[in-house]
Amino acid sequence: MDIVVCIKQVPDTEELPHIRVNPETNTLVRESVKGIINPFDENAIEEALRLREAKGGRVTVVSMGPPQAKEALRKALAMGADQAILISDSSFAGSDTLATSYTLAMGIRKIGKFDLLLLGKQAIDGDTAQVGPGLAEWLSIPQITYARKIEVNGNQIRAERTLEDAFEMVEVTLPCLATVTKEINIPRYPSLKGLLSAKRKEVLVWGADDLSLDRKRIGLEGSPTQVIKIFTPQPPPKGEILTGEIPEVADRLIEKLRERKIL
Amino acid sequence: MAEIRVDLEKCNGCGECISSCSFSALEMKDGKVRILATCTFCGACVDACSEEAIVLEKEEKKVDVSSYRGVWVFAEQRQGQIMPVTYELLGEGRKLADHLREELSLVLLGWKIEKKARGLTGYRIDKLYLVEDPLLEYYYTSFYTQTLVDLVKSENPEIILLGATSLGRDLAPRVAARLKTGLTADCTGLEIEPEERNLLQTRPALGGNIMATIISPHHRPQIATVRPKVMKRAKPDGKGQLRVIKIKPNLTSEDEMVRILDLIREEKDVVDLQEAEIIVSGGRGLGKPENFSIIRRLAHLLGGAVGASRAVVDAGWIPSYHQVGQTGKSVQPKLYVACGISGAIQHQAGMRSSEIIVAINKDPNAPIFDIATYGIVADLHRFLPLLIDKLEKREKALL
After folding, report:
1. What ipTM does this complex have?
2. A220 touches chain B (CB under 8 A)
3. Which SMART domains does the entry link to (chain A) (predicted)?
């Protein structure tokens, strides 16, 4: 079973509070922010490795991003992926989710035949959850979003999709794309052996010239959406610390909640 | 419609294209390749052919932005019930349509739902597109995508709003990619820019640390998914008539590769968390798993649901569906009570838009106090029993 996992390098969440908007240029100040693999994508890698352990085959991990995203791919190799590919080119800069899913789709086509395409349910920086379904559309394959369980039976998979108040059991014939939630598994840490063998493996880098691309569909030109403004949200109105003896504080809290019509 | 053909003069019968096809839509016949009916026009073979013998012509029109008119709301229905987010979208859609001086249309897909549709009379909807087909009874990505795309192509709306729900976020990116137009996820603010009639779509990113405003200036329709429970619900004025336009979709059952086998309801407390008006959450400050009982008691007393921080979920104190935060659930209740939760940024990302936040923590420097409406620096093991006792007494007195 050949599985391709798409991952994204995102800023470490611990550092999010330090990311600020430069009010003059309207851009993000995010230099020196450490990158990590998007947490949901780690679940996707883990699921791919488990399916390979059960069914055999290959796991290829792909990321589209700047050269630093190689680090994320190296970690995926250390976790046990067979192959890692970075899709990177200055002409991809400014891609929105449509251009990103197009570019990734062209990269996946170059990889060739696959049975299953896995992604995290969304990236924690943009939180759009749009690249997965977009990718499935460009590749004309079915999609299962928000999967919390995946089982392979021959050329079919059975999955549980998480809905708001229920989950859905679905079945689909391969090839297909699935996005996974964190309930699906607990990602492994790279083993020492994994770290050593990852050192010997190379991360392939494909640029725009390596892919059969329609140049009108990539980067800024291929992106219908434009960010025209970014700003720091209004901080919540300054709160109040209720001080005093505990019984008194409890009474004051009840009074406040009564005033706000909660009680 | 796209067209694909093989230039037989150029084809050298190498078979490269056959191995590139995920759909077994190519075969070799008399040393030349042939394209079968299962072709999806994905174009993989075009890229694989070194002889440029396969020609794919995709129809593409230049977008004339001004030829797209009107605002559409996609009505989300499950098991024949119109979901609450639809009424929020109607409120917002009406506002945008009034700004643009255009019509507001509701698009409802399903099967045997005409009665439900009639119940929408009086919501100031100018037009209802009612698309009924047995294949639309349940949500299937491909059928819904195909139906909505066909309808958009024939009617050319300038704006489409969908709920940012599990359904809306599955459907919208598929529709937008097929139409090759702009889509903005999980919007919390929508306005019209008067000169260009662009939709200004504002949404949080990076865990709510920044807000971004996004436009799609050269593409129509402009599609947005809208975060539930943010926009005001439309109120019916009871007047007017509903102009219903019935559409017969062009669907065949073979188009769907996914089969729904079963639908299983979650346990009640899972539902409660996202719909709850009041949430009481516990974190590591509880000390041990048994102490969640006090959180449950307070939640029960306030008529709320139980939440948890990632730390206690990872420690196995409580199942993961209680987790609030960046990798858990995003909630915005009227009241959020954080007990023994330090309030790491990941936790804040899932609850900071709650209306009132009460934080109880021993550590006066805990980050949760930065966003708390009311902060209480105290040992929760002393404070909570006392609060519960006072609330119980109060309740009895009121009875």
Report:
1. 0.93
2. no
3. ETF
